[in-house]
Amino acid sequence: MPNHVIPAPIVPVIPTSTGSDFPVRRVYCIGRNFAAHAVEMGHDPDREPPFFFQKNPDNLDPSGVFPYPPRSTDVHHEVELLVALGKGGSDIPLSDALDHVWGYGVALDMTRRDLQGAAKKMGRPWEIGKAFEHSGPVGPLRPVSEIGHPDQGRIALTVNGELRQEGDLNQMIWKVPEMIAYLSAYFVLQAGDVIMAGTPAGVNAVARGDQMEASIAGVGALHVKVV
């Protein structure tokens, strides 16, 4: 048995359609990967070098419940494709990148927008707005063997039945293979790493009691209640 001075932390997992869980090592999130969302956030929609921030693995929450976080009065939804890696590496060639994907899921990048905005103005990191507890609601993963590699299809989010976000996976500025290849040039990717692939336009605030439904064609749906 390991001789730890404190109990070892539990490895966060995401349920899968196979009945087994996917253990999560790291969470990489790409920023402004849909042109219309870049515009609504006040940025140029032209293709620019990608940039990433991170959430913590235990921020991912498959419970279907999102507790409204403290120290914020402006919490936004962002529906995203989640890419789960089954193997890793460094300097992965673009042509081989999809071979590293185990499967895909639907996720939300919940954001304390007021805190993120304050951090941006001061040139500070975004974690206070992005990497808080329960900030990554996630649905079950489906393996590539079931659904292939979705590179097009509707991605949408409703709140209390009202459509808030809608786009298509083919509108992503940086595609899944490009994200994997780019990240592997700067980090040693490993099995268990996940990538949140960006959100379409329409991000907006939620309130306690709201019912969110996120969906991606061919991947699945995610129902989350704000409490």
From TrEMBL:
<dbReference type="InterPro" id="IPR036663">
    <property type="entry name" value="Fumarylacetoacetase_C_sf"/>
</dbReference>
<keyword id="KW-0378">Hydrolase</keyword>
<protein>
    <submittedName>
        <fullName>Fumarylacetoacetate hydrolase family protein</fullName>
    </submittedName>
</protein>
<keyword id="KW-0479">Metal-binding</keyword>
<dbReference type="Pfam" id="PF01557">
    <property type="entry name" value="FAA_hydrolase"/>
</dbReference>
<dbReference type="GO" id="GO:0016787">
    <property type="term" value="F:hydrolase activity"/>
</dbReference>
<feature type="domain" description="Fumarylacetoacetase-like C-terminal">
    <location>
        <begin position="27"/>
        <end position="227"/>
    </location>
</feature>
<dbReference type="InterPro" id="IPR011234">
    <property type="entry name" value="Fumarylacetoacetase-like_C"/>
</dbReference>
